[in-house]
Amino acid sequence: SQRPDPTAEDVAELRANYAGNVELIDDQIGQILATIESRGEIDNTLIVFTSDHGEMNGDFGLIYKSHLLDPAVRVPLIVRPPAGASGAVNVSPTEWIDVAATLCETAGTSAPGFSRSLLPGVTDAKHHHRAGAISEMNGEVMWIDLTHKAVINTEGEVYLLFDRTADPHEQTNLAGQPSAADLETELKQRILQRLVQTQVSR
Average pLDDT in the 71-88 region? Predict the structure, then answer.
């Protein structure tokens, strides 16, 4: 269960354990890559490193992962296509389903559903991958683009709204503020439009 007020000692322990896990994973991935390279297959292998979620680790006084704040939704995403790439950094929003399209394109087959291959952005840092991305959790939906982020609750109301340019660490929630009413409405519409566009028949 969520502890609403983790102590400083709790946070220190969480972050130390997290750092230890990162070091362990880094070491294990290094061993995997070394094995692939020793077999002469490194330039015949698509490498994707990512995660399904981040961790709060005491940020905002919260722990665990079940939130749509930045520490819980920002994840690493590294893509190395076969034969390598120049190491471009692309900041365009992406969605986890885009990994599927990337795998399919590399394998020479079509991409499923609404996913988009990440490969164009691997070599072109200016490639515009998506205007924005959504993420869903427990009935809540987040929209994020290069300048703003909004989250609607299960009642369909915006309860989190951040200016990512002026407030990259999400310290000032603009939801409900009269000065942000038009922006709130616009981003809510983007979320609803995207949800309608991505509905599939069962």
Answer: 85
